[in-house]
Every structure is written in structure tokens, then in C-alpha cells.
Amino acid sequence: MRLFVCIDDTDDLDSKGTGEIAEEIANLLEEKELGKSSAISRHQLYVHEDIPYTSHNSSMCFEFCLKGELSEVVELASSYLKIESSPLSDPGLCIYSYKESHDALIDFGKNAKVKVLTKEMAYDFAEEHGIYLNEFGGTGDGIIGALAGVGLRLTGNDGRFKGKHKIEEGLYQVETLKEVLNIDEIINHQTKSYLLEGNVYVSGKVKSVLHNHKRVLPVYLSNDGYKNCLKEHLRVY
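and the corresponding C-alpha cells:
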């Protein structure tokens, strides 16, 4: 069974981040031999004065190929959130069993990037579509971002992957770079076309993003050739 697990609003400015907790949950599920986790993606949500958030208002999502029981995933993820979430946070958890028809969930995710949504809207949606959604403290508003994050991950075209790639600065051929970074493609940030050959100079924080359901490295063409995208480029992902 293919699952999507997403959490939101588990931290405060002095606690471990939501991305770190998502990674710990993914590792825990694997340690319990319940299945295999994908990389974790970060999904930017609407920043508005009526929406409380810690720093950027983003949720963290990963896919999970389930070999065990769904109830065990729900129990372990829920228990972990109860223990590890900051007492000052409003944590929410969404666990979605993949279905071929998920356009409405994608729409919910897209709306969460541009509109102020409510807990009632999230719970009503989850109940109507049979999606596990729960809160674990505070106002529980994190359920909105948790549900939205799944929808955005399902688009295959939203989010940056957690963490940065470890690689020495330098010039790499396209195929070599893909192998070293363990990514699917390298994409021209300006034209959105894949680089099939040539060289890329990588330096600084090397980040990959979700594009067409693939893990890709976005690059831009400078006066000196292709380079990995910088922070100002990555804001759109």
C-alpha cells in the first residue's frame, strides 16, 4: 500500500524542527519494518496575518510503501508526535492511502497556498474522503497544513526536499552529478527543460526539488555556465 504521511506545526523557535520530526517518524517506521520511506519534501503554505506559524508556514511530507498494517503506522506516528512536538505548538498529522482519484485533495493543497482555510474545512474534507487526520495539542491548526501538504505532494510539482546534498564543490558532468547526488534529473530553472549533457558547477547549499514526480536538481545558466540554483531561485519551489 502506498501512503502519504504529512505533519505540520510541531515546533517552536527553540525546539527541533518539523522536518526533523518527520524524518524521525520515517526512520521509526522503517526500523519497525513496516515499509520503506521516501525523501521528505517541504511544502510552502499561505503566509497571512490570520495564520499563526513558527517561521515559514510549511508542512513536511513523505511517501511510505507500507508492508505492515496501516493501524501500526497511525499508532506509531501519533505517539511520536505526542511525545516530540513542542508543548507550544499546534501539531497535526495526516496519513493518506493513495487513490487514483485525488483531484479534490490536490485542490485543497493548492488553496492552502493562497487562502486562509479552517480546521472545520480540513476535518470535513478528511471525513468526506476517508482520510486519517488528527491533532495533538494546542489549537490543532496543524491539521490544515498536514492535509494540504499531502495534496501538494500529490501534484508532483511542489516542494523542496529536506536537507542539502553532500558534495564537493566543483565542475561535474550531468550524468556523473545525477549519480553522485542520487537524483532523477537536472532541470534548467529558466526553461524547465532537462539537461541531458554538459557540465554543472556546484557550490554552497545544493538542494533538490520535486518536479514531475521526480527528484531533480534545479540549475541556472550564468555567464560562466550552469550552476546549482541559489536561495533566491529556490523560493518558487
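(Above: one complete record from the training split.) The chain is about 30% helix and 25% strand.
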